[in-house]
Specification:
Number of strands of chain B: 12
Largest sheet of chain B: 5 strands, antiparallel
Distance between the termini of chain B: 52 Å
Strand content of chain A: 5-15%
Structural class of chain B: alpha+beta
Structural class of chain A: alpha+beta
Number of helices of chain A: 8
CATH superfamily of one domain in chain B: CO dehydrogenase flavoprotein, C-terminal domain
Largest sheet of chain A: 5 strands, mixed
Oligomer: heterodimer
Shape of chain B: globular
Radius of gyration of chain B: 19 Å
CATH architecture of one domain in chain B: 2-Layer Sandwich
Shape of chain A: globular
Largest interface: A-B, 42 and 31 residues
Order of helices and strands of chain A: HHHEEHEEEHHHH
Strand content of chain B: 15-25%
Strand order of the largest sheet of chain B: 4-5-8-6-7
Order of helices and strands of chain B: EHEHEEEHHHHHHHEEHEEEEEHHH
CATH topology of one domain in chain B: Enolase-like, domain 1
CATH class of one domain in chain B: Alpha Beta
């Protein structure tokens, strides 16, 4: 799926003027993509690719679609390949890297976002299918400098170690609390089972969700 | 992922006349995954989302569920929870909360097997490439079927929902270029035989529009038990959908279907028959369950499913029948 890297090039960087980690990584990705294109023989010989001949995008102009994504309240017009997922659109096209790509196959929950208020997996959602819907990512939770109660609870309860699964955990937790599935530790664990944490921060994640749920119940909404 | 033309359906008749090599997408939780793996490579994708096959209605005939209803919404519907607990429980034990928010009822019934060889395009697979062979018969087959196995395929059907719906004698309403028709869900799923690539009694262009569960007053005494390697977010090793009609402590009628063990959702009328007229107790349940694995064909790694499926049914019967 190297076509994504080409999309990133030529887009204005939010970090103009300073050399960010994100900018460096996207340059590196673009470089590796061009190396891949320059070495088709080596690519064809690779065992993982041998049964997957890739059709160049240039042969499929009909698959480009004009869409408007509504992310965190803002409308974002984009021209995307119909294959682009919400995950790739927000990360690579809108430069919002808070939503994480873990397995990219719907097994880990790292890419969880809210669509029309419901927690879903952005890696299995095509961007073209979300027009007119409200997408909320981790970047859309805080009110200015004030963290969302779930974000604050993850900090106070130490609900993470490496942090990679955390945006997905937090978005899923927001959904879990809204759905009313925080009645017990067992219920929280069951309804959060779609979010894996390889560091094993589960006990603290459960604590954080309990704390945030209590706080949010008390809040006037 | 291969490129495809995308189109949002406007009307049902427009959707069903999209032509060959069209894949229909609703929740996308299975299809997008398989497209990323190059297991499914449609050139056209039609989004059924805008169509109106929605709603959950309960009338004197039974329960009508629009095919585009989300799994989570059906699982939490108070009428489903009360009148058809086996459906609600099977749904809640499926996948994860996120996937249940995305996946539709119709899509759930159309999901493909989790067989590792099917999902790996570098492996032969008679389901994916007819005639290429079945490595699972002699290979990694711990998760595979013991019922309905042929010399071509031993892949299990992965849906929990389908097991519950088969136990309730459910019917699918389909719409295609030639009009509408109804198929009993149990018959909708085909045995692999020599053609494991043909999985459903569905014709070119047809879509599922409604799932109909015929009225059964006693369906409120039902339950779904799922046994798996992990407590949550995992496919079944074995599962049992049990529906009991009790007159006092006498079993008037019963429905039993099992999952994780069949090449299709597997109903066990022989167990149900053995229960009829008996007193609902541990001995009667155990005696009936003994016949559950008749005709099973085990493979090198899945012999354990014979005893596990019997124990699964026994426990499900005991829980639903209120027998400790």
């Amino acid at each position: 799926m190297h076509y994504r890297n080409d999309d990133t090039m030529g887009e204005p960087s939010p970090n103009k003027g300073r050399s960010s980690r994100r900018h460096f990584l996207s340059q590196l990705a673009a470089l590796s993509a061009s190396l891949t294109i320059a070495a088709p023989a080596a690519r064809a010989a690779s065992s993982t690719e041998r049964s997957r001949p890739e059709t160049p995008d240039s042969e499929q102009p009909e698959s480009l679609v004009d869409i408007v994504l509504k992310v965190n309240g803002q409308e974002k017009p984009l021209k995307v390949d119909s294959r682009v997922t919400v995950l790739d659109a927000v990360r690579d096209r809108l430069n919002m890297s808070g939503t994480k790509k873990g397995c990219d196959h719907g097994a880990c929950g790292a890419c969880t976002v809210l669509i029309d208020g419901k927690r879903v997996l952005s890696c299995l959602t095509l961007a073209v299918m979300t027009q007119g819907k409200e997408i909320t990512t981790i970047e859309g939770l805080a009110q200015g400098d004030e963290l969302h109660p779930v974000q604050a609870a993850f900090v106070t309860c130490d609900g993470f170690q490496c942090g990679y699964c955390t945006p997905g955990q937090i978005m899923s937790a927001v959904g879990c609390i809204r759905e009313g599935h925080t009645g017990s530790d067992t219920e929280i664990r069951e309804f959060m089972s779609g979010n894996l944490c390889r560091c094993g921060a589960y006990p603290n994640i459960v604590q954080a969700i309990k704390q945030a749920a209590t706080q949010m119940k008390g809040a006037v909404s | 992922m291969r490129g495809f033309q995308f189109k949002a359906a406007t009307t049902p008749s427009d959707a069903v006349s999209s032509g060959a090599d069209t894949a229909f997408i609703a929740g996308g939780t299975n299809l997008i995954d398989l497209m990323k793996l190059d297991v499914v490579t449609p050139t056209k994708l039609v989004d059924l989302g805008p169509l109106s096959f929605r709603g959950i209605t309960l009338d004197s005939a039974g329960l009508h569920i629009g095919a585009l209803e989300k799994m989570a919404d059906v699982a939490e519907d108070p009428r489903v929870v009360k009148k058809y607990p086996v459906v609600s429980q099977a749904l809640l034990k499926s996948a994860s909360a996120q996937i249940r928010n995305m996946a539709t009822m119709g899509g759930n019934l159309m999901q493909r097997t989790r067989c590792g060889y099917f999902r790996d395009t570098d492996s032969p697979c008679n389901k994916r490439v007819p005639g290429s062979g079945c490595p699972a018969l002699e290979g990694e087959n711990r998760m595979h079927a013991i019922f309905g196995v042929s010399d071509s395929c031993c892949a299990t059907h992965p849906s929990d929902l389908a097991v519950a719906l088969v136990a309730l004698d459910s019917v699918l309403k389909l719409q295609g270029p030639q009009g509408t028709r109804e198929v009993k869900l149990e018959d909708f799923y085909l045995l692999p035989g020599n053609t494991p690539d043909r999985e459903h009694d569905i014709r070119s262009g047809e879509i599922i529009t409604e799932i109909f569960v015929p009225a059964k007053a006693w369906a409120s005494r039902s339950g779904y038990l799922k046994i798996r390697d992990r407590e949550s977010y995992e496919f079944a090793l074995t599962s049992a959908a049990v529906v009991l009609d009790l007159d006092g402590s006498t079993i008037r009628d019963a429905r039993i279907a099992v999952g994780g063990v069949g090449t299709k959702p597997w109903s066990l009328p022989v167990v149900a028959e053995a229960l009829k007229g008996r007193t609902a107790n541990r001995e009667a349940f155990a005696a009936a369950t003994e016949q559950a694995a008749e005709g099973a064909r085990t493979l090198s790694q899945n012999g354990f499913k014979v005893s596990l499926v019997k124990k699964t049914i026994l426990r499900a019967l005991s829980e639903v029948g209120g027998v400790a």
